[in-house]
Design goal:
Blueprint (H helix, E strand, L loop, with lengths): L6 E7 L14 H13 L4 E5 L12 H18 L4 E4 L3 H10 L3 E4 L9 H8 L2 E5 L17 H19 L6 E4 L8 H9 L1 H5 L6 E3 L4 H6 L10 H14 L3 E4 L2 H17 L2
Parallel strand pairs: 1-2, 1-8, 2-3, 3-4, 4-5, 5-6, 7-8
Helix pairs in contact: 1-2, 2-3, 3-4, 9-10
């Protein structure tokens, strides 16, 4: 666990097609050492996903998600009490994951994928991350449009939080995520990053996912490969920290922990 005020969520993708590391950790013998490495690098929590949500990604059957996720959740839980998040839109996958030891339902659809999702979230009693996404992963980058992206995203998140509360999800269990890169062009992502304080002002902890995302390459052509986006990822994470986000979702845990520690020390020295 880190000593930073901003928590670090380490990513483990149990997928063949995720945008950054698809296929590297699809099988348990590869995924478990990676999860343990992130824990050793002082991740505060892990986010396990078995369905890619990159632009253009195709859906995965709930049975396949469960088959990929449950062995890793159990294996991590045997050796660590670290909070485990499961990145899924499907209530049945969230239910199976929580039964296996997961603590957080990270839902890119903000509990809209199935009519029963809000009720299931309330029943499970786990923490829930509600993310903004325009469209769906398969088509979200085709032609995203907003009249006022900051107002529309904050309004959407406020409404989804109210829907979760109405279904019986406890207020202290709700997180918000502005969904950087999910149905958004470069200018939309930059506007949201510049005004994260408005999302924070909604009064819920905010999870920010900017690690290795395509908007970094749009700003720096030398970062065409996802592995070349660490510096941009850290810059965006620190912008989020300065705006008051509660956690950052990252692939590079050790580097992010160090960057946040230095940022915190400088801020503390300034009073």
């Amino acid at each position: 666990m880190t000593d930073n005020p901003v928590q670090v969520m380490g990513v483990v993708n149990l997928t063949p097609d995720s945008f950054s590391d698809g296929g590297l950790f699809l099988e348990l013998p590869d995924a478990l050492p990676h999860a343990r490495r992130l824990i050793a690098e002082q991740a505060d929590m892990l986010d396990l996903g078995a369905e890619s949500t990159r632009p253009g990604a195709l859906p995965v059957a709930a049975e396949d998600e469960i088959e990929r996720l449950i062995p890793l959740i159990r294996a991590v839980r045997e050796g660590s009490a670290i909070p485990i998040s499961v990145d899924t839109m499907k209530p049945e996958v969230a239910r199976a994951a929580v039964a296996a030891g997961a603590d957080i339902w990270n839902d890119v659809s903000a509990l809209r994928h199935a009519p029963e999702a809000p009720d299931v979230a309330a029943e499970l009693g786990c923490q829930v991350v509600l993310m903004h996404m325009q469209g769906e992963p398969r088509t979200m980058q085709d032609a995203p449009h907003y009249d006022d992206v900051v107002a529309e995203v904050t309004g959407f998140l406020a409404a989804r939080a109210e829907a979760a509360l109405a279904a019986g999800v406890a207020r202290e269990k709700i997180w918000l995520d502005p969904g950087i890169g999910f149905g958004k062009r470069l200018e939309h992502n930059l506007a949201l990053l510049a005004h994260l304080d408005r999302v924070v002002a909604l009064g819920f902890p905010v999870l920010l996912g900017v690690s290795r995302k395509r908007f970094i390459a749009a700003l720096d052509p030398a970062a065409a490969e996802t592995g070349d986006r660490l510096a941009g990822s850290l810059a965006a994470a620190l912008a989020g920290a300065a705006a008051g986000v509660a956690a950052v979702r990252v692939h590079d845990v050790a580097a992010t922990v160090q960057a946040l520690r230095v940022w915190r020390a400088i801020a503390a020295a300034g009073g």
